[in-house]
Each structure stands twice: as structure tokens, then as C-alpha cells.
Amino acid sequence: MMKVEPIELDGNTAIAIEVKLPKTTLLVVTTDKGYIMCGALDVALLNERLSDRQIIAARATGVKTIDELLDAPLESVTHTAEEIGIFAGMTGRDAIRKMM
To answer: How far is CA 29 from CA 8, 37, 61, in A?
Structure first.
């Protein structure tokens, strides 16, 4: 099952995507600039092998819902995310605000 819904933050809209998979749920909140994701995101891959793409992304671990993803502290972020002021430890919600 897949669910897609808008998330309103400060008058802007992000898109939340929840995909139910066997034994896990994939969680993503995305904007036109970047995205945050559950622990399935491989930030090292984005930083090392796909660095030429300059992807703005961040990962939070241990989350099971979109609300938890937005409220959790980020565990890791891409180098390009750091360039726009997104850092490990900030909440997913604050990171999404910087991506809008």
C-alpha cells in the first residue's frame, strides 16, 4: 500500500510518501529541492558515488510514521544539504523548511 499526502509548513507544501513493504515502511518527505527519508536512505552512497548530482537529502533512523520522521533528529545528511544549512541533529521538519 502507498499513501501520498501534502504537508503544509509555513505556507509551503511538501509531499509525504509512505510505502508499506513487507516487514518495513518506507517514509519520505520531499520538496522541489530535496528530501528527508527513513533509515533506508544511503547517505554515504549519495555523498560518494553520486556526489556529482549534488543531492540535498537527510536521513532519520528509528522512525515509523511521517510525523516521527518530521520530528526526529536527523542522523546523517548529504554534503550538499550541509551547504544550505541542514545538519545532523536538527529535526526533519526544520530540514524540510530549509528545502522549501
So the answer is: 11, 7, 14
> 56 - beta bridge partners?
34
Model pLDDT for residues 20-66, shown as the tens digit of each residue: 999 999 999 999 999 999 999 999 999 999 999 999 999 999 999 99
Report the C-alpha gap between 44 and 66 in whole angstroms.
23
Give 3's strand partners. Answer: 18
Q: From edge to edge, which strands make up the β-sheet containing 76-77?
A: 2-9, 12-21, 24-30, 34-37, 56-59, 76-77
Phi, psi of 94 (to 5 degrees): -65, -35
User: Cell 529535526 maps to which residue?
Assistant: 91
pTM: 0.94
pLDDT of residue 75: 98
